[in-house]
Design a protein that fits this description.
The complex is a heterodimer. Chain A is α/β, with parallel strands linked by helices. Among the domains of chain A are: 107 residues, Succinate dehydrogenase/fumarate reductase flavoprotein, catalytic domain (Flavocytochrome C3, Chain A, domain 1, Alpha-Beta Complex); 108 residues, Fumarate reductase/succinate dehydrogenase flavoprotein-like, C-terminal domain (Methane Monooxygenase Hydroxylase, Chain G, domain 1, Up-down Bundle), CATH 1.20.58. Chain A is 38% helix and 19% strand. Chain A is built from 16 helices and 21 strands. In chain A, strands 1, 2, 6, 7, 8, 9 and 16 form a 7-stranded mixed sheet that branches. In chain A, strands 17-15-10-20-21 form a 5-stranded mixed sheet. Chain A has a 4-stranded antiparallel sheet with strand order 11-14-13-12. In chain A, β7 and β8 form a beta hairpin. In chain A, α1 packs parallel to α11 and α14 packs antiparallel against α15. Chain B has 2 domains: 101 residues, Beta-grasp domain (Ubiquitin-like (UB roll), Roll), CATH 3.10.20; 148 residues, Alpha-helical ferredoxin (Fumarate Reductase Iron-sulfur Protein, Chain B, domain 2, Orthogonal Bundle), CATH 1.10.1060. In chain B, β3 and β4 form a beta hairpin. Chain B is globular and about 70 Å long. Classes of the chains: A alpha/beta, B alpha+beta. At the A-B interface, α3, α4 and α10 of A face α1 and α3 of B.
């Protein structure tokens, strides 16, 4: 089948749904396609909260400065200004739509502290903020009645001469491939955590949108900037919210010391995430860890506060690690969490391809630069989701009647993808499994593109990727059926992830300085003279092309960064 | 540790009936059922289909029946099961698409049927709605629902009454009824009073038992029943009249007077329908006495009733407060 819509949003997390609602509000024919049901999206995993300078005495400039400093001056300040200025309205909109934000005694919105912030400006719902937001966004999507293509796996973009005209996707339930033509496509497919093993991310976070955009010719940016979250659970790697430290929890080493006083004497545990993760890894590497972990100590917060505000992490620690955080400190370590990089967009979500927009975690505006502040990602999704939805709508309203041409291209693309999937299903078994290749990629990405990096390791990773890419051409699809064939989708996802692993490795090798989350032990200093600029990648069959673009600086000149 | 998984398989493309397939796996002690199923799917049998994503009880994808009861596979620690063989089946009350994957479309339709979004009244405030902190905190318990479908899977009412709106949608409805910002609670409660509504719950506790997030849907259903009774919206449904009749009789006589109970809780027309049963009961000497036995301390029971008679009203409604305010 070939379907047609004015605006097509890919991904039904917070950014995607916000974009779709905006397009609907602007009177455009909009549909949303997602590989899982909307409420399954990974936005629900955000625990801690959403930032906005809404409180008495807080200003957008302060929020903006904190974000710029958090980004280690790699964030583009025009975009950060928009983020900080629009944040209050965005949070109030969510409240008006039904999010049950925590209140203070007087019934007004209450805040909690968060890392890297000079004020308590994080609004929250216990430690299930993302879930509360996702549910409400879904409710609004249902209210306005956006057409949903749920459990559809997008395999590629329909692109011709630098113009994107739709997608090809598989209805997972039937296994049938279809094309959806659109004047504008908004990618909001979230993160790429599965490139790394372990990670805090869900199994669906395979970077699909980034990879299909990259293959279609859109540029990726800041891909060396990968965030390791300081408090992921030993073993499973599950996320324990920064909100725990926001509420006052300590980090301890094997000697029982609050070691953050050495690394961030002012902000201690509430320094930015790159700083805390680096400190933890240093403690572990220097022999002051416990079984490759440090300890997160919540005991002094008391049972009442823990149950009221940190109930979910209490449950996770208990069920996954057997630790009751009321009684005992819980072992944690830095774990892969979030890419600051992604599909390069302008402040309206426009990518380097015509007709293609991106928002949320898969996009790079860049507001997070070298390091994202906690509770800025939920904010990113709703603000830039809305803006991308608006820009895509504007394009749809003014798009010419390229319908006949679009329909011909859609048919060609559909046939190509049908053939490609057929060939995948027909591959003979030679002993290569997608899961095994992914695992080898993941553990090595954490090893060589982790908290600390150097040239030797990154070069080694480059070589490993060659062999992984080669092995991936031989992976086998054992399930020959069409209905709900998750074996087939896992092979497609592996191809996406290998492209992204290459992008991370290559840009990390290229940036010969240390900035934000990117720490090169062979280049330990920040080097503004040479590296106050972004690295962009463009796909080419002979290997990625590297481009450099300047960082936009509006009002905050780079300074020495300390917490 | 060694684990034996007995998995209910079904493949629509093979036109086969459902069948059991057993797998023996060696897994680390800390493994959840989901970890084991993923290992199974990746290394042993790639044709096994299941939904899963977050691995940390937050996305609601991996609902399935484990040893006969619905749960999230990622929340089921194998070492806690204490059974030699773990049986794994798709969730109940929903058609199977393939293996452990069920058709959730009916589930979502039920959810959409309750208008699951905030319906405030009046002007949108410039800042946030100012509401009691407790009222927002109270909602956390229901906002915790991740729509995994476990409660719907094991709901006894749904298994015999497909019209029943079901525990997930009721929990959602409760979330809006209790939200001080929502002004549509009268319409919401009237819908809950209709066919498939709260009175069709059989009180079996399954949803409370299986919910992996402690949402306790049945408690929410009972709370809405009570609101309906308190609001006097009881004429339309037997269930409400029964509940009221039961409480009135026990409150007055200290025991259930079955004859009066019947008279009070059904309409005259319906009463005729009971004639045959009544006659048969009478012939076998099983008709309850027309004048019930008095119990000695009925007065004490009456006092208990008066003391416990609820003060639990919907405390938080902004629009009610506004209306009450305007009446003063």
């Amino acid at each position: 089948m070939i379907y047609k819509h004015g605006v097509l949003v890919v991904g039904a997390g917070l950014a995607g749904m916000r974009a779709a609602i905006e397009a609907h509000n602007q009177g455009v024919d909009v549909a949303i396609v997602s590989k899982v049901y909307p409420v399954r999206s990974h936005s629900n995993a955000a625990q801690g909260g959403i930032n906005a300078a809404l409180g008495e005495g807080d200003t957008w400039e302060s929020h903006g400065y904190d974000t710029v400093k958090g980004s280690d001056y790699l964030g583009d300040q025009d975009a950060i200004e928009i983020l900080a200025r629009e944040a209050p309205a965005a949070v109030l909109e969510l409240e008006h739509w039904g999010v049950n934000f925590s209140r203070d005694e007087a019934g007004h919105l209450g805040t909690r502290n968060f890392g890297g912030a000079s004020q308590a400006r994080t609004f929250f719902v216990a430690d299930i903020t993302g879930q509360a937001l996702l549910q409400v966004m879904f409710e609004q999507l249902v209210r306005v009645g956006v057409r949903m293509y749920n459990e559809w796996f997008v395999t590629s973009l329909i692109e011709d001469g630098g113009v994107v005209r739709g997608i090809v996707g598989m209805d997972i339930r039937s296994g049938q491939l279809h094309a959806i033509q659109a004047d504008a496509v908004v990618l909001a497919t979230g993160g790429m955590g599965r490139v790394f093993e372990p990670s805090t991310n869900a199994l669906i976070n395979t970077g699909d949108g980034m990879a299909i955009a990259y293959r279609a010719g859109a540029r990726l940016m800041d891909m060396e900037m990968m965030q390791y979250h300081p408090t992921t659970l030993k073993g499973s790697g599950a996320l324990l919210t920064e909100g725990a430290r926001g509420e006052g929890a300590y980090l301890l080493n094997s000697e029982g010391d609050r070691f953050m006083k050495t690394y961030a004497p002012n902000k201690l545990e509430l320094a930015s995430r790159d700083v805390v993760s680096r400190a933890e890894q240093t403690e572990i590497n220097e022999g002051r860890g416990i079984d490759n972990c440090v300890l997160l100590d919540c005991r002094h917060l008391g049972k009442d506060l823990i149950m009221r505000k940190l109930g979910q992490i209490h449950e996770l620690a208990l069920e996954l690690a057997g630790v009751d955080i009321v009684e005992r400190p819980v072992p944690v370590r830095p774990g892969f969490h979030y890419p600051m990089g992604g599909i390069k967009t302008d402040v309206d979500g426009k990518t380097t391809l015509e007709g293609l927009y991106a928002a949320g975690e898969c996009a790079c505006v860049s507001i997070h630069g070298g390091n994202r502040l906690g509770a800025n990602s939920l904010l990113d999704t709703v603000i830039f989701g809305r803006r991308a939805g608006a820009a895509a709508s504007a394009r749809s309203r003014t798009a010419g009647s390229g319908a006949a041409e679009g329909s011909r291209l859609a048919e060609v693309a559909l046939q190509q993808e049908t053939d490609r999937l057929r060939a995948l299903l027909d591959r003979p078994y030679v002993g290569e499994l997608a899961a095994k290749v992914r695992w080898d990629m993941g553990v090595n990405m954490v090893k060589y593109c982790g908290v600390f990096r150097d040239e030797a390791g990154l070069t080694e990773m480059g070589n490993l990727l060659h062999s992984l890419e080669d092995r991936a051409t031989r992976v086998h699809v054992g399930d020959k059926g069409r209905v709900f064939n998750t074996n087939l989708t896992s092979v497609l996802e592996l191809q996406f992830m290998l492209d992204l692993a290459r992008a991370v490795q290559l840009t990390a090798l290229t940036r010969t300085e240390s900035r934000g989350a990117h720490t090169r032990t062979d280049y330990p200093e920040r080097d503004d003279e040479h590296w106050l600029r972004h690295i962009q990648l463009q796909y080419a069959s002979e290997g990625p092309e590297i481009h450099y673009t300047p960082v936009t600086i509006t009002r905050w000149e780079p300074q020495v960064r300390s917490y | 540790m060694d684990v034996q998984l007995k998995v209910r398989r079904q493949n629509p493309e093979a036109e086969g009936e459902p069948y059991w397939k057993e797998y023996a796996l060696a897994v680390p002690d800390h493994f959840t059922l989901l970890d084991a199923l993923i290992q199974l799917r990746e290394e042993v049998d790639e044709t096994l289909s299941l939904r899963c994503s977050c691995r940390s009880h937050i996305c609601g994808s991996c609902g399935m029946r484990v040893n006969g009861h619905a749960n999230l596979a990622c929340k089921t620690k194998l070492s806690d099961l204490h059974t030699d063989t773990v049986t794994v089946e798709p969730m109940g009350n929903m058609p199977v698409i393939k293996d452990l994957v069920v058709d959730l479309e009916p589930f979502w339709k039920k959810l959409y049927s309750i208008d699951p979004y905030l319906q405030p009244a009046g002007e949108v405030p410039e800042r946030e709605y100012v509401v009691p902190a407790d009222s927002m905190l109270h909602l956390d318990g229901v906002v915790n629902c991740i729509m995994c479908g476990a409660c719907v899977s094991d709901c006894e009412s749904l298994s015999v009454n497909p019209l029943f709106i079901g525990p997930t949608a009721f929990a959602k409805e409760y979330r809006f009824v209790m939200d001080p910002r929502d002004a549509a609670d009268t319409q919401r409660l009237m819908q809950m009073n209709g066919p498939g509504g709260v009175w069709d719950c059989t009180h079996c506790f399954q949803c409370v038992e299986v919910c992996p997030k402690d949402v306790a849907p049945m408690d929410r259903i009972m709370a809405m029943r009570k609101m309906l009774v308190d609001d006097g919206v009881t004429e339309k449904h037997n269930g409400a009249r029964r509940q009221k009749a039961f409480a009135d009789l026990v409150g007055r006589y200290g025991r259930l007077d079955e004859s009066r109970y019947l008279m009070k809780s059904v309409s005259m027309g319906e009463l005729a329908g009971y004639a045959k049963v009544g006659l048969r009961s009478a012939m076998r000497g099983k008709l309850p006495p027309l004048v019930p036995h008095r119990i000695p301390e009925a007065a004490r029971i009456r006092r208990i009733f008066e003391r416990t008679r609820s003060t639990h009203r919907r405390r938080f409604k902004l629009h009610q407060q506004a209306q009450e305010g305007s009446r003063v």
